[in-house]
Every structure is written in structure tokens, then in C-alpha cells.
Amino acid sequence: MNSKAVAVMASGRGTNLKVILESVTKGECPVDVRLVISDKGDAEALTIAREAGVPYVAHVDPKKFSGREQFDAECAELLDRHSCQWIVLAGYMRILSSSFVRRFRGRIINIHPSLLPSFVGAKAVEDALEYGVKVSGCTVHLVDEVLDGGPILAQSVVTVFDDDTRDSLHTRIQIEEYKLYPATLARMANEGFDIEGRQVIWKK
Amino acid sequence: MNSKAVAVMASGRGTNLKVILESVTKGECPVDVRLVISDKGDAEALTIAREAGVPYVAHVDPKKFSGREQFDAECAELLDRHSCQWIVLAGYMRILSSSFVRRFRGRIINIHPSLLPSFVGAKAVEDALEYGVKVSGCTVHLVDEVLDGGPILAQSVVTVFDDDTRDSLHTRIQIEEYKLYPATLARMANEGFDIEGRQVIWKK
């Protein structure tokens, strides 16, 4: 399998997908985005992918499947058919079935808006504010069967201001995400990594 | 009570005490360290305090008390007698009794070698390495009855390197501690803060 072949799964605005594709176009991120899958037919991510000339852009409609397993099996089929080494989650809002996670163990990548292991879950930015941390950030990590729990590839720090709201903090974290996600994919393609215990050791 | 009157409690080498006293001497930290208490008679912290001219330097020997409550009551007595607004823990190895924590609620300050709420407890540096985080750091926080759980005053970030050992990472975190602890005490003295929920809001 081509170690630079990437699929992106997205549900929404596709902003992380967009910055990844821009980074590829600029020659800063030597990966080959072969496939974009969305579970939402009207996801802007699909338009972004088509306009960027991604070879295969798929809307897989959950309503056409009897359950999560069946839906994920269809996605897995597409991923295998296009020989994608890496599956990049970019605002993908569905929970992955355990069989999907097991099948692509060590090959699914996610970005989370906190410095993991602090603030797992869907309300990471609110939770960080409420806890009163003075720094937060974002984490690119491999996906395993523990929520936001896989080995960490990269983290980037954002200062929390006393007058931050959920929106102001989230905006600054996203600015970091847009740098960190393509940079981490580039590093994966250029260097590769080993995993020791749960530590990601970059090869260069 | 003088809002700049500080007591330091230490058990060991007193390195955090030392940098605080140096910062005071240099005029960078406008607090008045009136009292240093150690539970260990041979703690270097006691020597450092005496040499720096701290007015009252006390070894309170746990062996002379029937239990933690009695020991803490003696310390509390000293703290009250010297009218210390802030109680700064600097490598203080004893667990504080709940009655002590309640009595000085919101006035006890600690520094912890991780970005809380990640990695509470005595093995923070090892735990961070084992988890595989790419950034760690240190946290100055108020002490409440939850282990390493009080409101956060300040945090400082340290990059974790792939080849870090417990010692190399701990050394770099300590370098940040030596800056962050005096800087935070200075900010407390110069600005003051309010607490909303668990968020520390600085007044300036």
C-alpha cells in the first residue's frame, strides 16, 4: 500500500479538509488525498473535495444501511478499494464502530481541540474554560477504542485568556488545528514513526 | 492581614524557595517572606531561609505530635501568629489535613509538574512520558481538598522530546517552575485575582 495515500472522512464544513488540500497543492504536504467520504449529502466538504479534484468523492448515506456496522463496512470497502493507508477524520461526526477501528488499527487519525488527556469528549473547549486552565490547545492522535485515547502524534498550545468565551477560544484553537493537521500529515509522509508503549517516536 | 505576607512550607532542597527569595531580593517579586516552616530538621530549605534573612525559620518535628491534625494545628498556629496571607508549598512532602486546608481555604498555593488536570499525583512526569504527550509543563494552583484539584493561577508549557527520560523532562519542567512560581507570586501581589466558578480572573 502507498504510505502516502490518504482518505478523509468529514461531516461538515470541511475546513480541516480544505487546509490539508491547500497544503498538498502548495507542495508542503506530500500526501495523495485519493478519497473523501461524507455521511452528509450537503456537507461542504464534498464540494471542497470535488473542486480540489480529489479523484473519488463519496456521499455514503447512513439511511441506506441498517446500522452502524453496515454503514462502516461500506466505508471500509471504499477505503480498501482505493488502497488508502491513512484515514483522516476531519470533523467527522459519527462514532466509529469497534470493528472499523480494529480493522484500521493504527491508521485512523483524528484531531481534538484540547491537550489530551485533558478534556476528552465533545465539549472539550467548554470543559477547558470551565475548569479554568490557562493553556489549552489541540492534539493529533491515532484513534483506538478509547474515546480520544490513542497515541499522540502532535500537540499545539493555545493560551487561554481570562475573558475568553467558548467561541473566542475555539477560534484560536482552530487556527492552530489548521497548521497542526497538515504539518503532522506531512511529517507522517516524510519521516514516519514507530510506537513504543503508547509513545509515538518520529523516525527523523 | 498584609496581602503580601507569605509563608513557605518546604521539606527538601528548597530550590523553589531559593528562586522565590532571589526574586524578592532582586525586587521582582514584591512579597514579604516572613516565615519558613519545614517538617525536616536537615532540609536545605531551612539553611537557605536563614541565610536569606527570613525573620522566622521553624523546624516543626512531626515526631513531637500525636498525628497529622496536631502537627498541622501547630503549623496553623505559626502561620496565624505571623499573619501570613499566603501559604506557599515548595517541595512540601506531607499531605495536608482537611481541617488545615479548610482553615486556609483559597490561601494555599502549590506548584505541580504537569499541565493540570492531566497527570495529578506524585508521578506526574513519569505518567506524562508514559502517556506519550508531546507537551507538558507546570501548574501553579490553589490547594483545595481534591488532589491537585484547586483553581489554576498559571501554567507554563514544556515541549516533550522523543528521547526524553524522566530526568531530562523533569529538569526542563523545573526550569519553568523556577520562573513561573516567583512570577505568579509577583502577579498575586501586584494585581490580585477573583475566582469565578473555578476560573482565576486576574484583576489587571
Pair with the biggest interface: A-B, 25 and 25 residues
Coarse structural class of chain A: alpha/beta
Compute the average pLDDT of chain A: 96
Structurally, the number of domains of chain A stands at: 2
Could you state the CATH homologous superfamily of the largest domain in chain A? Answer: Formyl transferase, N-terminal domain
Q: How many runs of DSSP E, i.e. beta strands of chain A?
A: 9
First-to-last CA distance of chain A: 22 Å
Helix count of chain A, per DSSP? Answer: 6
Radius of gyration of chain A: 17 Å
Mind telling me which CATH architecture of the largest domain in chain A this is? 3-Layer(aba) Sandwich
* Beta-strand residue fraction of chain A: 15-25%
In short:
With 204 residues, chain A is an alpha/beta fold.
Structure description:
Chain A has 204 residues and is of the alpha/beta class. The first copy, chain A, folds into two domains: 1-104, 3-Layer(aba) Sandwich (Rossmann fold); 110-204, Rossmann fold (3-Layer(aba) Sandwich). Chain A has helices at residues 15-25, 44-51, 68-81, 98-103, 124-131, 166-190, and strands at 5-10, 32-38, 56-59, 86-89, 108-112, 135-142, 152-159, 193-196, 199-202. In chain A, the strands form two sheets. Chain A has a seven-stranded mixed beta sheet with strand order 3-2-1-4-5-6-7, with helices on both faces. In chain A, α1 (15-25) runs parallel beside α6 (166-190). The longest helix of chain A is centred in the last third of the chain and has 25 residues, at 166-190.
